[in-house]
Target: TRAP transporter small permease protein
Amino acid sequence: MSAAAPAGAARTGGALGVLRLLDRVVTAAEATLMVASLALSVGFLVADIVLRVAANVALPWAAEATRYAIVWLVFIGGSRAARTGAHITIDAVPEFLPERPARLVLTAGLVVSSLSCAVLAWYGVALVRQMMNFRQLSPSLEIPMWWVYLALPIGFALMAIRFAQAAFAPRATGHAGSAA
Model:
C-alpha cells in the first residue's frame, strides 16, 4: 500500500500547476505581442521609406501606427523585463547585508514595485474609461485612442504580476535576489 500525500500537498501541486501553466501562457503572449509590435513598427517604417524613395508616395498613417506599436512594445516589454529581473534596481544596501536580510530587502523592493504597478494599472483603467467617454480618434488611423491607452493598464497589471512572482516564486520566474 502506498503512502498517501497530505491533502494540502495535492491542492498546492494543482494550484502550482495552474500557476505554471498561466506563467507559460502569459510568457508566450508577451513574446508574441512584442515580436508583432516590433515587426509591425519595422514593416511600417520600411514600407514608408521604400515608397517615398521609389514612388515619391508617403503613407500618412505609418508614423502614427509605428508610434502606437512601440507604445505597446514598451509596456509589454516592461512586463517581460520584470519577469527576468531586467529592470534597473538599486541594490547598494543588500550588497552590504548578510544573505538573508539582503534577500528580504530585495523582496520588499519587489513587493513595493508590484504594488506601485498595481496602483498605476488601476489609474490606467480610469484613464482608458475616460478616453472611451471622450470618443477621441487618432488623427491618421482614425482608431479609438483608448486602444492605445489600453497599453498602460495591461502593461502595468502584467508588471505587477511579474514583480509579485519574482518576490514570492523566484524559481518560477528565474528572477534573482528574492526570498525563497
Summary: The mean pLDDT is 86.
